[in-house]
């Protein structure tokens, strides 16, 4: 069993750290919020007074932070953890961040003789709580092999996506598809409504036809056809529109860097930005159907 430093124990990191404890690992937690660290201590972990302390004398460090700037600062900034960690420590960053920062931080870790992977997740807070997350992992074979058993305590599907940063590439490509498909599905429901086709009939037919997709069958944006979808609880998330917009913006940043034209990705980003600016950021992303209905007139 491993001794693990866990930095960033918020909505996702908190339950992930608790699942490591359940699997028998030791966890030393650090977060800017002492209250969140205490929850991990209550579950059997110990408290670290700083990020560097969480990364000292441990076998592995897992970070689950909001964005690239937080990850860069925790790893390579003033009092960054790479400077003081024991050589050979394994680092796993599970935050969703930009590809460029992920690759830079992994290069900095490798330059110091450490192993590091980017391992963003899908599955949301429920997946973090139930240890059913999917991890998309970028890094060397050696780093992946060392990270896999730890990731298995927090998730059920662990995929090696290739070299450094490729986990982030997989994550933003996936979420760009999800954002675009939710808008496509929403437009179809609104058009069906206007033309007199019931939501249930539209769902029954499209979900077993060539227009079916994951967004429709799992996150159906109108109430009724999929009882577990956020539409049935007034769009309480679920997957917040704020996070969808964050991932779409990351996809567009990556598209610009790679000089790839993604017109539908760009349009989905603009529509989610409009939806979030109207004050809907904390609601489920599928609620964008309401804006599309308004736009339809
Ligand atoms: P969160 O805001 O609940 O947690 C982030 C934590 O990091 C906070 O507790 C914050 O205090 C802490 N933090 C920030 N800077 C720090 C620092 N310098 N040192 C120590 N702690 C610091 O966010 P979350 O929902 O847990 O998401 C974390 C990451 O996972 C994000 O990148 C997000 O995009 C990604 N993600 C979230 C979901 C989801 O459904 N919430 C799903 C998939 C991926």
Can you offer a commentary on this structure?
The chain is 52% helix and 13% strand. By secondary structure, the protein is an alpha/beta fold. It has two domains: 3-162, Rossmann fold; 169-296, Orthogonal Bundle (N-(1-d-carboxylethyl)-l-norvaline Dehydrogenase, domain 2). The longest helix has 29 residues, at 166-194. The protein is elongated, with a radius of gyration of 20 Å. Bound molecules: nicotinamide-adenine-dinucleotide. Nicotinamide-adenine-dinucleotide is lined by residues 7-8, 10-13, 30-33, 36, 51, 64-66, 70, 73-74, 95-96, 121, 124-125, 239, 243, 246. The site of nicotinamide-adenine-dinucleotide has 26 residues, from helix 4, helix 7 and helix 12.
What is the secondary structure topology, with strand pairs?
Layout: E1 3-7, H1 13-22, E2 26-30, H2 34-42, E3 46-47, H3 51-54, E4 60-63, H4 68-76, H5 81-84, E5 90-93, H6 99-111, E6 115-118, E7 121-122, H7 124-129, E8 133-138, H8 141-152, E9 155-162, H9 166-194, H10 199-206, H11 214-218, H12 241-257, H13 263-280, H14 288-296
Parallel strand pairs: 1-2, 1-4, 2-3, 4-5, 5-6, 8-9
Antiparallel strand pairs: 7-8
Helix pairs in contact: 1-2, 4-6, 9-12, 9-13, 9-14, 12-13
Bound molecules: nicotinamide-adenine-dinucleotide.
